[in-house]
Target: UDP-glucose 6-dehydrogenase
Amino acid sequence: MIADVAKSDKIVVEKSTVPVKTAAAIEKILTHNSKGINFQILSNPEFLAEGTAIEDLFKPDRVLIGGRETPEGQKAVKALKDVYANWVPEDRILTTNLWSAELSKLAANAFLAQRISSVNAISALCEATGANVAEVAYAVGKDSRIGPKFLNASVGFGGSCFQKDILNLVYICECNGLPEVANYWKQVIKINDYQKSRFVNRVVSSMFNTVSGKKIAVLGFAFKKDTGDTRETAAIDVCKGLLGDKVKISIYDPQVTEDQIQRDLTMNKFDWDHPIHLQPVSPTTTVKQVSVTWDAYEATKGAHGICILTEWVEFKTLDYKKIHDSMQKPAFLFDGRNAIDAEKMREIGFIVYSIGKPLDPWLKDMPAVA
Model:
């Protein structure tokens, strides 16, 4: 389309996270349809996080621009660099070749996901030994070579980028004859799936090895707070894992609509050696077993257990005494985001499971989790 309408030389800037060498494909298409017009292709990947995108745009850690290492390519790089220089310090504007820019975005997301999977792997060991993952992560994060970011244990990472970009990286490695490297990055996703599977198993085993006919309240469906995005959210797989045991689920999320939740639970997902990825739930099942409410107290009323799956700030300030009084007893609270004070919840009367934290005495007596 660009080639069809262009009447003068153009700089085409690739912003999306794309497979490495996409710029070359764009370049070939434009060149073969150029009609004498010259095109320069730049890679300028986004490093914006949902919930903080505007702040990330105005105050980026870095801006990355990749272009051809030719006089024309470098001239195009400078033109885009001059745009960013209006508000970004020059030392934060990095210039590379095309392939380095494309691969850097994939690598950055893979490294961030790797940190989450690493601390989640440690969280399983913490539960087995009585250690506290928050204390371990704090100690590890104090190492200046490591730092504290992305070391919060949870039920698993989600969002539109991490899994997609790691699978992209795996594909590139396999295509280039690097199976060992591909398997290394595959393991980051496998640990993420293991964490979700482990959470589901913990819920079921804690509640006398069955949730059949019981009501579970799910607080939070988005993949993280301050967004209504449910792409690859851990809540999908946790709900599917529980639905297999004929549970009744009541879901509350302040930003995710009922239509979106129903779509997510009935959508077929790519099955890639994932222990938790089940067949899509039929619409009939979701109607019978899943309800969505716009009130946390309504969601938890009469429930046998609560699963916190998104770290919404409002979940910290709920009246948990009121919630506990309205629930079936014993009342279970499974905190998949370490969002609430477990000891305060135990004082109220909850049996609490927090990822990576020392187990509640009740849970120690229950069968081991697979």
Notes: The radius of gyration is 24 Å. The CA atoms of residues 108 and 256 lie 28 Å apart. Residues 2-101 form a domain with the Rossmann fold fold (CATH 3.40.50.720).
